[in-house]
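Sat 14:20. Reprocessing the chain from the morning session after the first attempt stalled halfway. Input below, unchanged.
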Amino acid sequence: MIPVKRYYLSLFMRRLPYFLLVASVISGIGITLATVLPSTFTSAAQITIEGSQIPDKLAGPTVSTPAIEQLQIFQQRLLTRPNVLAIAKKLNVLKGQADMSADEIVKAMLDRTSITSTSGRDQATIMTISFDARTAQLAAGVVNEYLTLILQDDARVRTNQAGQTLDFFNQQVAQLSAALDALNAKILAFKHENADSLPENLQYMRNQQQLMQAQLNQNDRDTAASVTQKNRLLELFSSVGHTDGGDVRSPEKRQLDTLKEQLSAALAIYSAANPRVKLIQAQVDQMQKVVDAQTPPPPPGGAAAGGPKSLMDIQLSDVQTQLDNLSGQRADIIARQKVLEAEIAKVPANALALDALQRDYDSLQGQYNAAVANQAQANTGEKIATLSRGERITVIEQPAVPTDPVKPRRVLIAGGGIGMGLLAGFGLVLLMEVFNKTIRRPVDLVNRLGITPIATIPYLRTRREVYRRSAIRSLVILLVLALVPAIILAINAYYMPLDLLGQQLMDKFGIRG
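Finished this time. Tokens:
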């Protein structure tokens, strides 16, 4: 009986052509791919957000976006369709680009572009931009174009934002200034229209009201005194019965008589040119004018019309004139009191209106002051952005021209192809034996038919059959080994580059390289 190891070895040797066929095909594919796949070069650059060169305490920046957000925004702006197409067209990045559609170019460019960001607590945010190309110069050239676009976009965005911020606050300051002027004019017009009933004049009006009341009280006292004087004159006339009794002269008349007596006495002693005499004479002349003014003119027609008035009539006429004047003064005081009271009554309403206007003015003034401060800060921020003294993107590592390709990893691909070929060959042999139910050993007769053979004679092939079978197997293996690389090379040369074909297949099955 054949040993088990020898039996399985014989089975493997019998299936060796199939094993070699599968292993050769797959290994050939792997080796061919490792040989014909084009080299891919990767160039990378690193950028970060550099802090402001001017301390924030001295001048705060106008643009204040977190670094990670700024880099994400620049990434989205960088990989837009127009930018990617412009770079691909400028550098002729892709192989066979003339025959590709715009969508295919954009997709291929994005697939070859890699952008990653690293950040952490108390760490700078760094963005790495890399690109895979068929040549080292193309890889470095595309990354350089990316950096140029990012730096230009950074300068443009910061300048535009700073300029727009300054324009906004300039407009706000102008609007608030115009509003303040209009409100100030409104307050002045209101004060002009209500000049007599403003809250700041209330104390003055109160004082005027008290003064008018005091004048009214004095008028009442003067009127009472004049009435008393008139009543006394009438009582005197009633009791005496004539007007020439008693000294009923006016004070001015009595003073005039006294001065005349002094003048007569002085002339008896001094001459008319004496200064004392002249002084007394001047006083007499002045007092004579006062007395003449108090004496009413004679009635028309002279003494015949009514005759000369008595001293009593003259005094009563003076008292009555005084009473009439006091009555007119009282009416004028009362009229002015009513006007003043009406103005005082308007003060509370005017005070409320002025307070409302003043509150609006103070609010606008506060907004204006804040806007002016913001305008100054925006102006400083605009200058900082224009001079690139604030936060900005800085290139940490410039893209370099790589010396060695990063892929394909030819040794790994070839080794993987050979390994997969060997595994596939062993798998095929195993499956063929598992599904093969033919009887090949005496033990199979015992196990399947329950027959114990006396002896077994194997099938013996002739030498010619053996040579022919070996030749056919060898020829098939050689043909396969020759055709597989030829087919792969033909596909790469006449149908589609293997790297693009592999990328399309990976995309079709949802595999990301």
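The two ends are 54 Å apart (CA to CA).
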